[in-house]
Write a structure and sequence with these properties.
Elements lengths: L5 E4 L5 E4 L2 E2 L2 E2 H26 L5 E5 L13 E5 L20
Antiparallel strand pairs: 1-2, 3-4, 5-6
């Protein structure tokens, strides 16, 4: 259980709040980081499971960020297993969800 927010009066007569800490970070930053990691995990495990169920000769490739259309940021695309596109393999990355 997280500690409660701390409210203190400041010299200007206003109220200042201090966020509780989680893993050495303010709670808002910690939650943002964990949701980003969870989003990456769900997307990549889903893609990995779908890739494992594909028929022989078909797989998926990852489109580089620069080749994605902003209106539809498709990350994965079907590819021939023995074609010219590199086959995607699941691996850990510390990049943000928007950057993968």
């Amino acid at each position: 259980m997280l500690p409660k927010f701390v409210y203190a009066r400041n010299a200007a007569g206003g109220v200042q709040t201090t966020q509780p800490q989680a893993s050495g970070q303010p709670v808002a930053e910690f939650v943002e980081y964990m949701l980003d990691r969870l989003s990456c995990f769900v997307e990549e495990v889903s893609a990995h499971c779908l890739q494992a169920r594909m028929t022989a000769g078909i797989s998926i490739t990852e489109l580089p960020v620069g080749q994605r259309v902003p209106e539809m940021p498709e990350r994965f695309r079907l590819a021939l297993a023995n074609g010219g596109a590199p086959i995607w393999r699941i691996s850990y990355s510390a990049r943000k969800f928007e950057d993968v």
